[in-house]
Amino acid sequence: MEEITQPIPKYYQIYKKLLKQIRSGKFEEFDRFYSDTELVEKYDVSRGTIREAVKLLIQQGYIVREQGKGTFVTSPTIEQDSDKLMGFTELMVKHDIEPSAKVIEREVVDAPLDLKGLMDLEDETRMVRIVRIRYGNEEPLIIEQSYFVYDLFQPIYEMDLEANSIYELLYKYTDTRLGEARQRITAVNAEKEEADLLNVDTGAPLLLMKRLIKTKEGNYFQYSEDLYRSDRINFTTTTKPYENSHDNHGLPLELRDQSW
Fold first, then answer.
1. CA–CA gap between residue 193 and residue 115 (Å, rounded)
2. Which letter, b or e, does each residue of 5-26 get, where b requires 16 or more Cβ atoms within 10 Å of its Cβ?
3. How high is the pLDDT of residue 61?
4. Please, what CATH class does the domain formed by 10-73 belong to?
5. pLDDT band at residue 251 using 50, 70 and 90 as cut-offs
6. Do 78-236 and 10-73 fall under one CATH topology?
7. Where do the HTH gntR-type domain residues begin and end (predicted)?
8. pLDDT per residue over 161-205, tens digit each?
């Protein structure tokens, strides 16, 4: 019988213990989870305490209860607000998930021709190309491929980009603050190399986000193409009322730029 210590509430201690078991890989997705009776006996606490602990796991999407069948382990879906520019580390912390990263490519390159036009760059501009795998609780979630303007990125080029947020490093060492971003999300299928990196089947549905980001001063400094596991990350957006020609006082609506 496992002993529960004080003064942290018992239900929260149990929740953390159960969460650790799930995150450690003891359970596979769709495995049957403990019953309340089993947990009462395991921790020698009241059924009400167990219900509070289990409730937290359900709310966070780690387990699901099916009436008449039992409780099963599942993978929580991460909601990302596409209306807000948020770094991966911040997103994971928001969902109580441990973020990590693996850099698989890091190089200095001449700015690609298409990016020179998109980002209003000079012909001689050099860029830093970074490819990272982003993990949540050691599970691969995103393949990030980013291009940064070298002159801005140079002070942090040799720093640890696996243990640190790039945006936080840029802010700390170059005083770069994020401004607005343009982004587009497209559904794609995973090619073999991408599938291997993300631990999904070849052809699995992914979400491709292309993003252009400006500094607070209005200068483009980053272009990225990120592949998200669509089974683990969802995007939400807030819509505004449609403005018809009458709302615009007879002026035609401006078409969205489709150049990228």
1. 25
2. eeeeebbebbbeebbeebbeee
3. 78
4. mainly alpha
5. very low
6. no
7. 8-76
8. 999 889 999 999 999 998 998 989 999 999 999 999 999 899 999
Which residue, 81, 118, 112, is CA-closest to 258? 118
* Cα-based distances in Å from 54 to 4, 47, 159: 16, 10, 41
**Site of tokens 């980013």:** 146
CA atoms within 13 A on the CB side of 134: 24
Q: Are 1 and 44 in contact (CB under 8 A)?
A: yes
Domain map (residue ranges) of the chain: 10-73, 78-236
The verdict on pTM exceeding 0.90 is no
Q: What share of the chain is helix, strand, coil (3-state, %, to 5)?
A: 30, 30, 40
User: What pLDDT is recorded for position 52?
Assistant: 95
Tokens 């167990």 identify what position?
50
What is the C-alpha to C-alpha distance for residues 178 and 162, in angstroms, rounded to an integer?
20
Tell which residue, 176, 172, 168, 116, has the closest CA to residue 147: 116
